């Protein structure tokens, strides 16, 4: 693996595969096709933002924008549950850990939190939880929550064996993080041994952070040493904790608040509030502002109190976490996707800021789309310096009539990328405005002619692979996670290798092993990292067809369409032959292509135009001479009910239907509504009617509720 994976920092203003139209639309206005494209775009964009944030400690967007993207993904998935992708960001958190630390597998996954932005969203969190638990109104009203400031640092998991600190790890991808034990030992807030009795094995979760004064001091030291400045305390904390040399960490005054539990070999409390007391007794620092609240009204009042105190606090917070106090209820509620059902992060409202737009830049994406980007005078919006915002397209610039030199209002939340709300009204005596922006009709990178087809909003460079912007973007796409996923070939490495002539076409990637020695001599490389790169490349010379097709970066062929094509055509040779035949309009092959469910005419047209270009065929042939494509990989899942189909029928008395379904799914089962030959197990509640009869007729396995509890590993009710 590469020693320096390269800044995989995405540009927030670079559009991915979705059309700018679908990226700008409200989730409720999307068609299914637009929703699929948008989910695909988000499935790629969010991990890139995660990498920028976690691996490079250099956020590419503000937190509010990031949250808005996550919420958008969820909102679209809620409307189109069938379009949820296996690689959906709602199912994953964070990133795969960087290679430099050894990996540590958490005993209980470290997850994230869903967000609320107002009282209504908080109330619907409570309603969801109550409904899941089947609580009546009185019991819902009796729910208590612990409110804790949401610390803006990085979460860590601390393992104690018989009261001794043995291991500490970052969150990583939620399942596995980086082992930063040695660094954590240098923290003054970290008890090396727990005071008083403790379980044999326990994981304690908390947040490592830097106080605001410590952050300023570190940045001053960085500046005088001529080193890069950290954007905010959180990134400085992450950078400080993830030092390979613990003596550097020791010089950074990192703090730690403990706030949650992971695995525990025995129960240590029955409520979260009492758990926090145990943490204090053991010697941890627990946030002193934590408080019990008993209603949405109290939660809202707490938000106001904390918002007032926020600027005077020694550390950055970005909201308040509300956790259901009763730990038995927490256990029953469990998790959905990446977040617990028993907690919510109520975030402070998004902020707006005013700054000057210095000029408008044009970016060229992988597919040649020319995207206008507003270059702004740097402005601090909620702790992150914003310098750019997207303007989407030519029409948007005209609609908003933004011009170089204008003061503009920018918004941090509620939309996809840093957004320009509009031009600030001018006052009398202001100097005259600049001229309206003239959208270029040539590509600013390769100077080829640009086109805006009738009915479309996007100008596109016609330079194809002769346009360096498109080549580099395409290469980056080619090695991205859902494509060839080559370890050690990040954005920066690709850009550098391209600049030095090592990489011109995707096929050149597979010729890099011939240059291993040259690579080993490059700055930042060495024999080991060059050898690792060679190995990573060779490992990918056998590739599932779907990944291969996706990697080609054909317009509108995202990974789900690539999977459809791979499944339909089976082999590369067959796909290639059929695509060539499909270049003829009206041919059987073209009709067959357009009638694959999920593909359709517009996508068939894109494929045909790709195959009509002789240089694309040359690229394909060059590549496939060095590769073996294989059939699709099937997703594997583990769990005691893995691959089983279960039906619940009748009334369950010890849990609600959604709870039963969630438990079954956690164990790997698929839960369906109707009984058929394909059903593996039917769980019969009381008054199970026709479905029970049908199960008996078909001779299916059935269980009553106690049997189901036993199968699921739950104690008898
Ligand atoms: S509880 C299962 N409590 O917020 C979730 N998290 O957006 C357990 N965070 O990953 C997390 N302060 O890094 C919890 N008082 C607090 C927190 C807190 C900050 C962070 C944590 C988490 C992220 C989720």
TrEMBL record:
The keyword Aminoacyl-tRNA synthetase does not apply. Residues 636-708 form the BRCT domain. It catalyses: NAD(+) + (deoxyribonucleotide)n-3'-hydroxyl + 5'-phospho-(deoxyribonucleotide)m = (deoxyribonucleotide)n+m + AMP + beta-nicotinamide D-nucleotide. GO terms for cellular component: cytosol. SMART domains: BRCT, LIGANc. SUPFAM superfamilies: BRCT domain, DNA ligase/mRNA capping enzyme, catalytic domain, Nucleic acid-binding proteins, RuvA domain 2-like. It holds the Pfam family BRCT. Zn(2+) binds at residues 443, 446, 467. One of its GO terms (molecular function) is DNA ligase (NAD+) activity. DNA ligase that catalyzes the formation of phosphodiester linkages between 5'-phosphoryl and 3'-hydroxyl groups in double-stranded DNA using NAD as a coenzyme and as the energy source for the reaction. It is essential for DNA replication and repair of damaged DNA. Belongs to the NAD-dependent DNA ligase family. LigA subfamily. This is DNA ligase.
């Amino acid at each position: 693996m590469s020693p320096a994976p390269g800044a995989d920092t995405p540009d927030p203003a670079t559009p991915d595969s979705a059309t700018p139209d679908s990226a700008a639309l409200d989730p409720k206005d999307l068609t299914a096709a637009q929703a699929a494209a948008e989910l695909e775009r988000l499935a790629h964009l969010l991990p890139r933002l995660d990498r920028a944030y976690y691996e490079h400690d250099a956020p590419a967007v503000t937190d509010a924008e990031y949250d808005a993207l996550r919420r958008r993904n969820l909102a679209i998935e809620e409307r189109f549950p069938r379009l949820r992708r296996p690689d959906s960001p709602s199912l994953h958190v964070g990133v795969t850990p960087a290679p430099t630390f050894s990996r540590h597998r958490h005993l209980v996954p470290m997850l994230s939190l869903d967000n609320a932005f107002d009282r209504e969203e908080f109330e619907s969190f409570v309603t969801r939880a109550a409904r899941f638990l089947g609580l009546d109104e009185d019991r819902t009203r009796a729910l208590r929550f612990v409110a804790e400031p949401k610390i803006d640092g990085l979460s860590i998991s601390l393992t104690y064996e018989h009261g001794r600190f043995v291991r500490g790890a970052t969150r990583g991808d939620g399942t596995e993080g980086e082992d930063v034990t040695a660094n954590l030992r240098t923290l003054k807030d970290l008890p090396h041994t727990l005071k008083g009795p403790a379980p044999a094995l326990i994981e304690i979760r908390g947040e490592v952070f830097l106080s605001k004064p410590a952050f300023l001091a570190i940045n001053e030291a960085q500046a005088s040493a001529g080193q890069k400045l950290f954007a905010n305390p959180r990134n400085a904390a992450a950078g400080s904790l993830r030092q390979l040399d613990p003596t550097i960490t020791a010089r950074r005054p990192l703090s730690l608040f403990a706030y949650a539990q992971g695995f525990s070999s025995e129960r240590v409390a029955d409520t979260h509030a009492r758990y926090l007391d145990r943490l204090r007794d053991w010697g941890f620092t627990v946030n002193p502002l934590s408080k019990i609240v008993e209603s949405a009204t109290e939660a809202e009042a707490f938000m106001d109190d904390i918002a007032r105190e926020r600027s005077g606090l020694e550390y950055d917070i970005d909201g308040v976490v509300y956790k259901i106090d009763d730990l038995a209820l927490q256990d029953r509620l469990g998790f959905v996707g990446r977040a617990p059902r028993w907690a919510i992060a109520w975030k402070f409202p998004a902020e707006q800021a005013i700054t000057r737009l210095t000029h408008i830049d044009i970016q060229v994406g992988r597919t040649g789309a020319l995207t206008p980007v507003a270059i702004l005078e740097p402005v601090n919006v909620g702790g992150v310096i914003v310098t750019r915002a997207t303007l989407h397209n030519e029409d948007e610039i005209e609609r908003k009539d933004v011009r170089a030199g204008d003061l503009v209002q920018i918004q941090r939340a509620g939309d996809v990328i840093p957004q320009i709300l509009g031009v600030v009204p001018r006052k009398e005596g202001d100097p005259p405005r600049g001229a309206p922006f003239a959208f270029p009709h040539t590509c600013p990178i390769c100077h080829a002619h640009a086109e805006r087809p009738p009915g479309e909003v996007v100008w596109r460079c016609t330079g194809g692979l002769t346009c360096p912007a498109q080549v580099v973007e395409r290469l980056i796409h080619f090695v991205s996670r859902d494509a060839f996923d080559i370890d050690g070939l990040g954005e920066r490495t690709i850009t550098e290798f391209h600049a030095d002539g090592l990489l011109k076409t995707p096929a050149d990637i597979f010729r890099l092993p011939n240059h291993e020695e040259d690579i080993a001599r490059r700055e930042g490389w060495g024999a080991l990292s060059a050898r690792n790169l060679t190995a990573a490349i060779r490992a990918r010379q056998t590739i599932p067809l779907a990944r291969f097709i996706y990697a080609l970066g054909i317009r509108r062929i995202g990974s789900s369409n690539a999977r459809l094509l791979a499944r339909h055509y089976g082999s590369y040779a067959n796909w290639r032959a059929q695509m060539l035949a499909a270049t003829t309009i009206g041919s059987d092959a073209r009709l067959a292509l357009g009638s694959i469910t999920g593909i359709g005419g517009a996508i068939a047209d894109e494929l045909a135009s790709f195959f009509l270009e002789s240089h694309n065929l040359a690229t394909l042939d060059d590549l496939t001479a060095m590769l073996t494509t294989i059939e699709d990989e099937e997703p594997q899942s583990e769990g005691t009910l893995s691959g089983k189909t279960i039906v619940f029928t009748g009334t369950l008395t010890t849990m609600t239907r959604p709870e039963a379904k969630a438990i079954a799914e956690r164990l790997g089962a698929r839960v369906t509504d109707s009984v058929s030959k394909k059903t593996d197990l039917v769980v019969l509640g009381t008054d199970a009617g026709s479905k029970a009869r049908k199960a008996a007729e078909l001779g299916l396995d059935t269980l009553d509720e106690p049997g189901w509890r036993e199968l699921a590993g739950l104690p008898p009710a």
